[in-house]
Amino acid sequence: MVTDVKMPGISGIDVLRRVRSQAPDVPVLVITAFGNVETAVEAMKEGAYDFIGKPFHRDQLLISVGKAFERRRLAAEVHDLRIRASGVEREIVNASPAMKQVLSIADRVAGSDATILITGESGTGKEVVARRIHVRSRRAEGPFVAVNCAAIPGELMESELFGHARGAFTGAVRDRAGRFRQAAGGTIFLDEVGDIPLQLQAKLLRVLQERSVDVVGGDHPVPVDVRIVAATNRDLPEKVREGTFREDLYYRLNVVEIRVPPLRERPEDIPPLVEYFMGEASAGREVAVPPAVMEELKSRPWPGNVRELKNACERMAILCGGTEVSIDDLPPAVPRAGEEWPPLPTEGLSLVDLEKKVIERALRLKGGNITQAAAYLRVPRHILVYRIEKHGIRRDA
Description:
The protein is α/β, with parallel strands linked by helices. It has 4 domains: 2-86, Rossmann fold, CATH 3.40.50.2300; 97-261, 3-Layer(aba) Sandwich (Rossmann fold), CATH 3.40.50.300; 265-341, Helicase, Ruva Protein, domain 3 (Orthogonal Bundle); 344-397, Arc Repressor Mutant, subunit A (Orthogonal Bundle). The protein is 46% helix and 10% strand. The strands form 3 sheets. The chain has a 5-stranded parallel β-sheet. A 3-stranded parallel β-sheet has the order 1-2-3, with helices on both faces. The protein is extended, with a radius of gyration of 30 Å.
């Protein structure tokens, strides 16, 4: 920004102060015909990048602006290097429109301090989205503190989150800051927030409203400057209806909701994810995933989502004896809990068509080998041959 000092309505120094408070990374160049030492010193104290007195040559202005851009570029590089060195960010491999939409929303809300609620099934990548929000926020150089609320015993959660004073209870031999104060200046990620006990939800609500924590055994609330990102795989509106989750806390957390879709809703992401995970797991070996195996991977429901797919890729890399994985290297397909296989459509189906599709899929799974497909379907080979001929199934298809 280039601003004069003496202007009607507002001075250039006031403009400088507002820019520094709202966009501190923008360099400000102050120009005035009434330049004196006091004005220059005041401008520099307020954070001006440079100060030029009138009259000036245009080359002088261009040189100063060019240096400002170079300084900002170097500051951005240093910022990015610090973030990478911290190890906070995780790569998000994606190709589907659904995930691109998720990341677009995450990037748009990252610049604010609004509380974010990330929802989705277990293993979809909620934490990596939270980390992306942190590293693209103004708090990126602050800490990122992740708390798994489901893994902390209820009797310890208050102390773990809010801290305690020495002597607050038996065994409290020293002060403990707690996770909220550890995250000061940065982001706290409350994973599985739906598992916080009801009696602690009121205290979490107070933190969201007052931006202060009540330390166990402390005399006064302690202010905290922290951005809150929460995540859950639970249906929080249903828990609100059941009375196991506070309605006011739900609305405080849900300023902006980001739903991460399950892997079965974005099969386009499976090929790039498989390539990425196989590259990690194969320890430098060149291991190919043939089309038949990839089609099988894309057809599975993946109840464990990306986490389950990663484990499957590790298994394939370990069991593969050559340079190409096979169907036999895959783990058995597991339907979702409580789900029938195959799911029956409400409008009905053709048993003949269903049998044909099952046989075709079994043949594809076993690479066209009828003997192996018969063993997989647990029928004699001659029965399978009869069914193949009856349905007119091409063995080489």
